[in-house]
Design a protein that fits this description.
GO terms for molecular function: 3'-5'-RNA exonuclease activity; tRNA binding; tRNA nucleotidyltransferase activity. It catalyses: tRNA(n+1) + phosphate = tRNA(n) + a ribonucleoside 5'-diphosphate. Keywords: Nucleotidyltransferase, RNA-binding, rRNA processing, Transferase, tRNA processing, tRNA-binding. This is Ribonuclease PH. The protein is an alpha+beta fold and about 240 residues long. It is globular and about 55 Å long. The termini are far apart.
Length: about 240
Amino acid sequence: MRPSGRNLDEMREISIETGVTRHAEGSCLIRCGGTHVLCTASLEERVPPFLKNTGLGWVTAEYGMLPRATHTRMRREAASGKQSGRTQEIQRLIGRALRAGVDRSALGERQITIDCDVIQADGGTRCASITGGWVALQLAVNKLIKAGDITTNPITDHIAAVSCGIYAGQSVLDLDYLEDSEAGTDSNFVMTGGGALVEVQASAEGSAFSRAQFDEMYVLAAHGIAALVAAQKAAVS
């Protein structure tokens, strides 16, 4: 039995509320159970120096957790003067994941930055950030299209992410904190709406996992991604 009482292949409740900030070109608040992440997309008519005069756009991301997103207060990273290795790793993952669903030539020489701020954490914050980040990105692109700044939608497919793991010897979908903290294996699957893999992160926290167990997690992930993509479609429709 999972601590939440969910079935092995059952996702937490998903909700995506759009237009939650006034100034960002795209924004949403994604809730995956007890994990809540504010995602905003900011458009700039410039690109990093290495892309200047290439005709290619850029999508990047920043990630952070508010001090009381967890059970005890965390010190703001700005107060220490540097980001943690975990923060840097997660925001690079978000950027890589979202770029996999973007035709950068169709975007043109402009940059969209996705800011993902974790308001409340209960496992799967990076996955929620990717899933909500895609929604914010699509909303920002919609404004470019409506304004006539671009004629072709540069977003080629949905991008979403979900966690899977081996908890109490069984493969489970969408781990919350209680499961994640005790899981023998923890994995994150980033996939397109078409079911193609973008990135997989999987590690054994205890004993090694088998190919059969990995395949079980992969099947669960595909099931979860389908639910997340359906939520994304409803949010941007």
